[in-house]
Amino acid sequence: MKRALSKSEPGGRPPEKFVGAVRRILRPLVRTLIAHGVTFPMLSEILKSVYVETAEKHFALDGEAEPSDSRISLITRVHRKDVRRLRSKQSSNALPLASASLGAQIIAEWTGNSSFTDKKGAPLILPRGAGKPDAPSFDALVASVSKDVRPRAVLDELLRAGVVDQTPEDHVRLIKTAFVAAENFEELLFHYERNLHDHIAAAGSNLEGGAKPFLERSVYYDDLKPESIEALAKLAEEKAMAGLLSVNKSARARSKKDEGAKTANKRFTFGVYFYADDEDER
Questions:
Q1: Could you tell me the pTM of the whole model?
Q2: Which of 18, 155, 186, 197 has the largest CB neighbor count within 10 A?
Q3: By the 8 A CB rule, do 177 and 107 touch?
Q4: What is the 3-state secondary structure (H, E, C) of 37-57?
Q5: What is the largest CA-CA distance in the chain?
Q6: Residues linked to residue 123 through DSSP beta bridges, in sequence order
Q7: How far, in Å, CA of 196 to CA of 26, rounded?
Q8: What residue ranges do the domains of the chain occupy?
Q9: Contact partners, residue 49, CB within 8 Å, separation at least 6
């Protein structure tokens, strides 16, 4: 999708309020970057590359297949030598997009597939193996997602992460409807990357005045006591998980129906978040 450059203030500067908003958005990002050893020179080189890549993909003139080095340099102020260097190495330096873990996929199937939920949509307590042909079981659940791993190994990992427990009858019960392994940096990074990217993309599209605004809403209050924050966090999690489970169930059904269609090339993200801090951290 090609994008037009927005109007700037006199002198070619972006609006002061917009710059202020960007500074605030960057603070938690920079805090995380410093915590993980990403220095300013490293970030500067990353930003150059992203500026060039984004300008090349989204800011070609009408009738252009792609913008020239000169145009990219003009609209990004990245030196032409750097533009040429970065454009020539982008294809070889591209990193693969992270993917969701098997544990997260299994939970999505467990909560979205009617074969593994009761009439109210709640995840069933599953026996380890099927007593009858086609009967729901934990082994069948794992096989519905991947036949390349042993169900026992998956069960051990979910037990370790505190996502499931086992009954004395050797049934498996889902006790958390989200798989977040605190020790698994790659798993946390997947959600960090995808959730922040899509949230910023949705808000940015709305700010640019896209044809159809994306859903992007929040509720915020200040002057609250810690116990109020705790109660609201609990309420938010209950309501949010109910919404996520409902959308997951519908999305899974549509995914199965759309599979193989020529026009099935779209993706979506529906997410929620809760954040609390001292007022001077705003």
A1: 0.70
A2: 155
A3: yes
A4: CCCHHHHHHHHHHHHHHHHHH
A5: 75
A6: 117
A7: 12
A8: 1-95, 102-174, 184-214, 218-282
A9: 86, 90, 93
pLDDT tens for the 282 residues of the chain, in order? 566 565 555 556 788 999 999 999 999 999 999 988 888 988 999 999 999 999 998 888 877 788 889 999 999 999 999 999 998 876 444 444 444 567 788 888 999 898 999 988 889 999 998 767 678 999 999 998 888 888 998 898 888 878 899 999 889 999 887 655 555 677 788 888 999 999 999 999 999 886 789 999 999 999 999 999 999 999 999 999 999 999 999 999 999 999 999 999 999 999 999 999 987 766
Extract the tokens encoding 251.
């999305």
Type of residue numbered 273: Y
Q: How many Cβ atoms from other residues are within 10 Å of residue 144's Cβ?
A: 16
CATH of domain 102-174: 1.10.10
